[in-house]
């Protein structure tokens, strides 16, 4: 049986971290928590568990997750966000693979999101397949902040899909979704700008409308009732914010160049 590390990044996660750690404590041989200087009870709650707790300056989601990987002693790592937990079925699936010595070097799983008390199975939110269990030597975290993903060095690496879900407790109040959407839009706009991307009002409009149509109609968000409409609306608004903020960054850069 191979040893397993679990890596979690945190910032003011007192509402979620106990549930997260409780779901994996019986599976993990090591739990690494990398904290971005929380000011709530996150550290105190983590002290209730046998974890390696370390504070580290947050430079981005991708950078923080890669740092967490570097602090894991074992090759096999399960990466979770603090607002996630694993279902009993997924825990069993992971344990069975662990007993066999992890015959695959990478494993994916579905993520099921809870939104204001409702499990969301449409809107493009389920099945939200994530690659979260892997031999850390076969890749690294990449993507574009804030949307990180694990990048395999060898694209032909065989990935085994596990039964069970990551349970994602996303938002307790709709206001939290609006706030996070605004934050993510700003982070994404800056990332696009740093990569030389440009935007325009027609592009922002098209992207926003397409996002709503995709989530609410094509991905059947209407089947999730009122919350399905709210999710589709805020997701579209986040897209609008992202591309209009990119316009402002482009224009600011243009002014500076002329100056």
Could you write a compact summary of the structure shown?
The chain is α/β, with parallel strands linked by helices and 259 residues long. Helix content is 42%, strand content 27%.
Q: Could you characterize the architecture of this molecule?
A:
With 259 residues, this protein is an alpha/beta fold. It is 42% helix and 27% strand. The chain has two domains: 4-171, Alpha-Beta Complex (Spore Coat Polysaccharide Biosynthesis Protein SpsA, Chain A), CATH 3.90.550.10; 174-258. It contains seven helices and eleven strands. Helix 1 links the parallel strand 1 and strand 2 (30-35). The radius of gyration is 19 Å and the shape is globular. It starts with a strand and ends with a helix. 36% of the residues are buried. The model has no long low-confidence stretch (mean pLDDT 96).
Keywords:
259 residues; alpha/beta; Spore Coat Polysaccharide Biosynthesis Protein SpsA, Chain A; 2 domains; nine-stranded mixed beta sheet; two-stranded antiparallel sheet; 11 strands; globular
